Amino acid sequence: MTDRPDLAAMIVPLSRALVDAELPVLREHDLSMWAYSVLLALDERPLRTQAALAESIGADKTRIIGVLDDLQRRGLIDRTPDPADRRARVLSLTAEGRRVRDSAQTGIRHKEERLLARLSVEDRRGFLRALRALAALPHEEITNA
Amino acid sequence: MTDRPDLAAMIVPLSRALVDAELPVLREHDLSMWAYSVLLALDERPLRTQAALAESIGADKTRIIGVLDDLQRRGLIDRTPDPADRRARVLSLTAEGRRVRDSAQTGIRHKEERLLARLSVEDRRGFLRALRALAALPHEEITNA
DNA sequence: TATTGTTATACTCTATAACTATA
DNA sequence: TATAGTTATAGAGTATAACAATA
């Protein structure tokens, strides 16, 4: 094995620093990290249940309720009972929600690009390709490796 | 900008999954993540103060006290008042501490290698090179980017 | 007066279980 | 009875402030 620091020893602090870097951007939009995650997850397609949303962003279903309350109150998401099953709440982005998401994401990507600019072209490419591949793995496939 | 998911959206879940994957290995050695971090940080050179150790692993100085208590009680670290400044505690690994660290690290690297084996040779190289470069940056240099 | 380590306290986050309303 | 959402509670993790010893 090539000599290198532990993966986690590098990734965990980097992860924390990235979050710290992005929180000010989110705060400008009055978004918590979970709220931003919700806006991202709802970007593509509406979701039929809150539990599905929670699972897709790695949160507990009880943990996002306050987040959804706030986003709904601010008109950033729609949250209506499913006529076919009135237990479920269909979730989707509003136009305003999409606007806020776009604005926040632009700021975040701007910061990220400045960080990635420190890498050589080939390292940057390998880093992003590898990161996408690893991030696409199911959680259990990593923990059970 | 090339289209890609947010960096943090990929790194944060990956970071969590990595930690979840490694915790069982650490538990076999009765080590918490912070305890393991301490053993890694003390590996190279002894440190003159607990505050310096805490800072080097991104922890609060009050948070590692219980960790150090436990490691000292188990004979994995030495923790003696500095004769030149009796306020400070000089910290170093014992031979047993080094043995436990090596054993835990072997298990952790084994898991990591199985994960990295999913990447192509060139992506793996770029990923590790980029990760080392980004992890070497001071925390503020990332947050202020 | 400042610094090192420590303890005590409060605060945030998270996980678990219990409740309601629908099915 | 099972499920979606909600609420309440407790637990872990973390941050802040106050304290004792030493400089």
From TrEMBL, chains A, B:
Molecular function terms from GO: DNA binding
Protein name, UniProt field: DNA-binding MarR family transcriptional regulator
Keyword Mitochondrion: no
The keyword DNA-binding appears for this protein: yes
Keywords, comma-separated and alphabetical: DNA-binding
Domain of life: Bacteria
Domain HTH marR-type: 4-136
Organism listed in the record: Streptosporangium lutulentum
High-level lineage: Bacteria, Bacillati, Actinomycetota, Actinomycetes, Streptosporangiales
Pfam families to which the protein is assigned, alphabetical: MarR_2
